[in-house]
Amino acid sequence: MKASMKALALLAGCAFAGAAFAQCTTDGVASNVGTFPGNTCGKNLALTSICGGGDPTNGAGTSVIQVNMGNTPNINLGVVSSTAGFNPELAYTRGTCSSLSACDVDDTNNTQTVPTGFPGTTDTPTTQPAAGSTSFVFISDLNPEAPGCGDYNLTIGGTFPVKVQEFTVQ
Amino acid sequence: MKSFTMKALAVAVLGLAGAGSALAACPQIVATSATPGGGGAWSSQTVTSATVGNAATGLNGTSCAPSIAINAGAAANAKGLFTDQSPQNETSYRARFYVNTTGLTGLTAANRVFRVFSALATGQPATAGAGAEEVIAFIGGGATPFVRFFVGDTASPGSYKIISAVFPNTAGNYRIEFALDSTAGTFRYWISDAAAATADATPTGSTTVTQTGWTGVKQINLGLFGTSTNYRSGVAGQALIVDEFDSRRQTFIGQ
To answer: For residue A117, is it left (φ>0), alpha (ψ between -120 and 50) or beta?
Structure first.
């Protein structure tokens, strides 16, 4: 009995990072800068939290965009929702596509435009991704609002030159 | 069935000096991890990179209550929480507590969020992940702060049903109660101003849950833990007050 109680306490400590974890599925792939439209409703519902499990989503859906980096990436991000009642969370991770991956961008501001001042202001990852790496952008909604999901335009700016696959001189 | 009730955080102890005394004694809540905890009423308390102490006033008419603040620069494992290990794999479990968020002036965005309560089981479905949490209650920020429940539900993606409710106002003094019945497959909750009356028949909301694989509530934690990155950067040093925890198997708790 005593041992089981200790085990339970240990589990409680481990669970703080996020009890509900899940691998996610991507809604799109970006291999260059640009604007990427999408919709979050009903997407990745098993992704109940993001950013190390610290941000519990509202359960209405999370869109995930995979970003394939080229050489020397230096990216920035912004998202604009076109759905009333959908004030998005914009998050970015260099880790795996999972609830438990830490985020290098984690931004929401109770408006449909993230970050505040976008496009003049953008969110820059606290650590830029490595050359040739794969990373993920999460567009979700943490607010208790209706519908709490909807249409968006994600802008990936900066530079992440595509990797040269083949080069010949004739 | 044996019933259990814990007025664990009603920390004011009245009348120790005899009839007619106006004195009220508050048990000292130590600043560090301790067994027992919460001044003696709880199984234990756990403090990591947090400041825990006695608030100047209690909630729901008590003389004092615990206050908890995450320290500046703390990491994701920062926490100040009280643990109750009296539940016995409860399949019918009700809990009620009061919170005061007026000190959390940085609680301004939905990604500034923390766990205020969790109920743990010894067994859970594999799809629920590494944790054993059967019910989690978060508090998050925004124009009006909100409560979000994660309730074990094998019929939902990720094995948790997500339920959100904004607090009824921005006054900062609230009462939270829920009733989980694993056998009936129901979860009901009451989110109210601290002074407002509530009734068993009129919850703020209710939902169905499928609790296959969950073995019932064995332990609960109450306090400030599981903070988001933005909570730690924007709300550190600001104190949450919790008080008047009560848990039962069957009967409504209310005020």
So the answer is: left
Q: Tokens representing A85?
A: 């009642």
The secondary structure of A41-87 as a DSSP string is TTSSTT--EETTTTEE--SS--EEEEEE--SS-EEEEEEEE-STT--
User: CA-CA distance, A39 to B225, in Å (whole number)?
Assistant: 32
Structure confidence by residue, pLDDT tens digits, B68-103: 999 999 998 999 999 999 999 999 999 999 999 999
Q: If you count residue pairs, one on A and one on B, with CB atoms under 8 Å apart, how many are there?
A: 136
> Which of B47, B162, B163 to mutate to probe the A interface, most A CBs <10 Å?
B162
Measured CA to CA, the distance from residue A62 to residue A27 in angstroms comes to 9
* ipTM of this predicted structure: 0.80
* Structure tokens given for B49: 């990179």
Q: Do the domain assignments include residue A6?
A: no
Kindly report the pTM of this predicted structure. Answer: 0.84
Asked if A46 and B157 come within 8 Å (Cβ–Cβ), the reply is yes
Is the Cβ pair A17, B76 closer than 8 Å? Answer: yes
Structural domain containing residue A29: 18-159
Judge whether A153 lies within some domain.
yes
CATH number for position A89? 2.60.120.380
CATH architecture of B13-248: Sandwich (2.60)
Element (H, E) at B133: strand B133-140
pLDDT tens for residues B4-61? 333 344 433 222 223 333 334 678 889 999 999 988 889 999 999 999 999 988 999 8
**CA closest to B143 among chain A residues:** A110
In a domain, A4, yes or no: no
Split into its structural domains, chain A has a count of 1
Three-class SS state of A15: helix
